[in-house]
Amino acid sequence: MHCPFCRHTDSRVVDSRTSDDGLAIRRRRQCPECGRRFSTTETASLSVVKRSGVAEPFSRDKIVAGVRKACQGRPVTDGDLAQLAQRVEENLRATGASQLEANDIGLAILPELRQLDEVAYLRFASVYQAFENLDDFEAAITQLRAEDAERASSAE
Is the full-model pTM beyond 0.85? Predict the structure, then answer.
């Protein structure tokens, strides 16, 4: 790490703390050459490989924007969407991969969205999983009902 003041090529870490969301580390550093202190923030980079093969940085905002469309007219707040995006990012980072396929992100969104709102889940799944006809919707609804019944019976 170069000192931003004297450009010395080394620095000493004085203090390290995780940020509020736990996804970054804030380090307080001191230059051994000039003695001045400065802070750095370190995050693990996460990139998304699109279907076209182009890689771009991961963005929570894109998750929120995509899910927001599925949630139009539903009782879902911006705070709910932000929490969903954070949980999805945490789950993706927990895999340890630095590059993810766009498809993997969609798969990670589906269970989180289902917990938030089942109608929004069906809307998102219909686009993401390319539903072609009513039979695809019926199959998805049947699966949701079966999983709900299974959950209810295991809770008893």
Answer: no
